[in-house]
Amino acid sequence: MFDSVEDVQQRFRRASYIASRRIATVVFLAARMGRPVLIEGPAGVGKTELAKTLADITSRPLIRLQCYEGLDEGKALYEWKYAKQLLYTQLLRERIGELIADAPSLPDAVAKIAGQDDAFFSHRFLSARPLLMAIEADRPSVLLVDEIDKAEPEFEAFLLEVLSDFQVSVPELGTIKAKHIPLVVLTSNNARELSDGLKRRCLHLFIDFPAPAEELEIIRLKVPEISSQLATAVVHAVEKIRAMDLRKPPSVSESLDWARSLVILNARTLDAALVESTLTMLVKYEKDLERVKGALDKVLAT
Amino acid sequence: MDQRILEFIGDLRRAEIRISPSEALDALGATAEVGFTDRETFKSTLAATLIKEARDEETFDRIFNLYFLDLEALGEGLKKALGPQDPAVQALLDSLAGEEDLDLDEMTELLLQGQGSEMEMAIRGRSQGAGLERLMYFLQVGHFSRRIYDRFDWSAIERDLEKIMKMLEQRGLDPGQLARIRNYMELRLEAFRRMIRQHVERELERQAWRQGEKLTREVLAEKPLFALTPEEVAQMKSVVARLARKIKDALALRQRQERKGRIDSRRTIRKSLQYGGIPMEVMLRRRHREKPKLITICDVSDSVRNASRFMLQLVWSLQECFSRVRSYAFVSEIAEVTQAFNSLPVERAIEWALKGAPIDYHCRSDFGYAFNRFVRTELDTLDKKTTILVLGDARNNYNDPQAWTLRLIRERVKGVIWLNPEGQWGWGVGDSVMPLYAPSCDFVKECRTIGQLAEVVDNLVHHWWRRGR
User: Fold this and answer.
1) Least CB–CB distance from B249: residue in A153, A200, A206
2) For the whole model, what pTM was predicted?
3) Do A82 and B40 touch (CB under 8 A)?
């Protein structure tokens, strides 16, 4: 899939994603070793984006499983379409009646219906959820398990099982084995500690806020209209704001939004009034806003 | 190289980073995939396979740098040590070394022409078996450097150098040029000696670090809380945070397990309407586990301040495990400090509770008076869902203990737990009135170290209210 770490780096770059050496190495290893990657880091540094880009450059379909509290196997793996099964039995009532018409006794009738089990417990009535989709897919895919930390630890254990042998057993159908091992990317915002088992199984990648030079590159790549002078000023200001003790420091996606809005406003340089009026793009909490506004001169100082 | 990586993993483990055998295997397999040519890639590979917690990265970086030298940087260092290179002399030496009839010792060639990395490898080779593992103090650096130095065959090298000089003389170089060459060779030798010393110093750092790190962690968990230095208090904060996370995780697991229960007929029938009245999905009545209300009453006088600090940190980090937490601080006057925790981050709130609450911090502890005030103002707010956690050494400075106050409190609440940061041997000795309060408590626990504190809070979260439900 990839020839070398440099190859990974270049292809990500072509897809407008700046991958550091570290990121590229881990992606390369994941592809080579067939291991899931667990990405941790603050919100908005491009964790999900990494998976999307990966799917993009390997031209594989992206299958996404968004985790949330209360997510269970049924919603992640598969479910029987009860309603459809029921509807079909209703519609086929007469056919079923015919089928058992000549049964001499009740046990015989039951046996006859049981013989038709397969008709109702078949793929037709199985609704595949992301995990089963990734396993059944005809071509290799990228499976993104987003925000795994939001799901319960119990689900994690189940996921670990699936990720270690890439096969699922559906009692009525038997075991379904993966035709292709998907590239698996898990992301976590560290809302809680993940289990050791899962971590052991995965390659671990921690993505932090990028260094100023890297962020500058990202902004120039994603917002090509921006002048280099303004881009530098933006990176500089964002770096200063991150250094403040805020409840939620601005992420890369937010600084991108800010840069875009500055371009739309036709700004050439940053000044206090402009920053103050567009600050909501960057800082999302009332208290944080006040703090940054109070220290604007420091933010803009060069 | 694999050997070196395994040694490295051993050191990470010694620094309390948990690495399973499968992870170690992964690391070996992965490094084989990427090769060893690029240091940055190599490092990322090891980090990705071995380090699974962001907080361990710093440790990893440190040990990595001790193990896997940046050879390029080392070469730069050597160049600096040599001073401005003398290209003419170097070229002359190079051409000399190339001549067949000279027959130089390998080491001499290395000394005259080698790169920093090659020299470092030579030093490493010779230092094996030099007993470096016994290196413990800085004073030994000289001794071990000498030892490694002596393992090279210096007589052969000197002979070679003389041979070179003689040969140059025969070729008719003038004394000025000869001196310049001699000087250059001296410089290289000196640089090589310095490299040996640096190698030993690095080794010392590695050993010392190994010992030190392990010691601090072990000691911290077992060290009496009152004896902590300010730095240790800071380190301890992260230990407590880790504990809190652990307790919380276990709780989440347990709550899930409790989802089994009796059939909830109302919801089952409601759901069955989707399927024409057939109860396809059975809904269960979830047993609601009532979270306890918790009131902590902390002695914040000097002697037990650290214990109070960590207890508060632990309890407030576990806020969501309780339906309500309220905290009081006292020395003799008592005041509620809950409001600080509601408006400030835990860290700052604790500082405030320990220093800024409206009580006199400099008087002598008086438990009796504090409980008395508490009974007067708060007794009506207590109920059977509340658990009271008292932290104090029960050293009452011979004041009236007013044990009846605690009895009165006990009658109103679900339970009273007393944490005593003083060893059990001291209870009841001198001005300790622990035996007078103990009968009103469900249990009294010694809580001298962070380990003991964690045990109590863990029990509190997980088992305490199962009883008597």
Assistant:
1) A153
2) 0.67
3) no
pLDDT tens profile B145-195: 888 888 888 888 888 888 888 888 887 777 888 888 888 888 888 888 888
- Residues of the domain holding A184: 5-72+130-206
Q: Is the pLDDT of residue B253 over 60?
A: no
pLDDT digits (tens, 9 = 90+) for B359-392: 888 888 899 999 999 999 988 888 888 889 898 8
CA distance B161 to B428: 82
Same domain, B146 and B99: yes
In this structure, is residue B232 part of a structural domain?
Answer: no
Are residue B77 and residue B63 in the same domain, yes or no?
Answer: no
* Residue that terminates a domain, selected from A159, A188, A206: A206
Residue B231 lies in a domain: no
Residues A115 and A256 in one domain: no
Q: If 0-12 CB within 10 Å is exposed, 13-18 middle and 19+ buried, where does residue B128 land?
A: exposed
Residue in the block written with tokens 């999302």 = A284
Last residue of a domain, one of A206, A226, A247: A206
Nearest to B48 among A26, A83, A90 (CB): A26
Q: Are both B203 and B282 inside the same structural domain? A: no
Residues A245 and A154 in one domain: no
> Quick check: B178 and B167 in contact, CB under 8 A?
no
Confidence of residue B106 (pLDDT cuts 50, 70, 90): confident
Predicted pLDDT at A136: 87
Which residues on chain A are in Cβ contact (under 8 Å) with B23?
200
Same domain, B369 and B338: yes
Closest Cβ opposite residue A83 in set B51, B256, B274: B274
Q: Mark whether A56 and A189 lie in a shared domain.
A: yes
Shared domain for B315 and B433, answered yes or no, is yes
List the domain range (segments joined by +) for residue B76.
Answer: 72-222
Residue of B nearest to A25 (CA): B41
Torsion angle, alpha carbons of A251, A253, A254, A255, to 10 = 90
Q: Are A178 and A105 contained in the same domain?
A: no
pLDDT band at B97 (very low <50, low <70, confident <90, very high): low
- The tally of CA atoms less than 13 A away on the side-chain side of residue A21 is 11
Q: Do A204 and B18 touch (CB under 8 A)?
A: no
Identify the pLDDT of residue A57: 93
**CA-CA-CA-CA dihedral for B37, B38, B39, B45, to nearest 10:** -100
Q: List, edge to edge, every strand of the sheet that includes B443-446.
A: B334-336, B324-330, B293-299, B386-391, B415-420, B443-446
Tokens of B221: 């968990």
Taking an 8 Å cut-off on Cβ atoms, the answer to whether B33 and A33 are in contact is yes
Q: Please tell me what DSSP assigns to residue B275.
A: G
Q: Is A245 on the interface with B (CB under 8 A)?
A: no
Looking at residue B373, its amino acid is R
CA B370 to chain centre: 38
* ipTM above 0.90 for this complex: no
CA B81 to chain centre: 37
Integer Cα distance of B425 and A23 in angstroms: 56
Question: What is the sign of the dihedral through the CA atoms of B319, B321, B323 and B326?
Answer: negative
Q: Number of structural domains, chain A? A: 3
A217, A193: one domain: no
Q: How far apart are CA B346 and CA B312, in angstroms?
A: 9
> Could you tell me if residue B233 is inside a domain?
no
* Helices and strands (DSSP H and E) totals, chain B: 20, 6
Helix axes B175-222, B450-462, angle to 10 degrees: 50
Asked if residue B362 belongs to a domain, the reply is yes
Say if residues B417 and B389 touch (Cβ distance below 8 Å).
Answer: yes
What mean pLDDT value characterizes chain A? 88
Q: Same domain, yes or no, for A52 and A152?
A: yes
Mean pLDDT of A61-68: 92
Contact indicator for B441, B419 with CB cutoff of 8 Å: no
Is residue B42 within 8 A of residue B11, CB to CB? The reply is: no
The total of structural domains in chain B comes to: 4
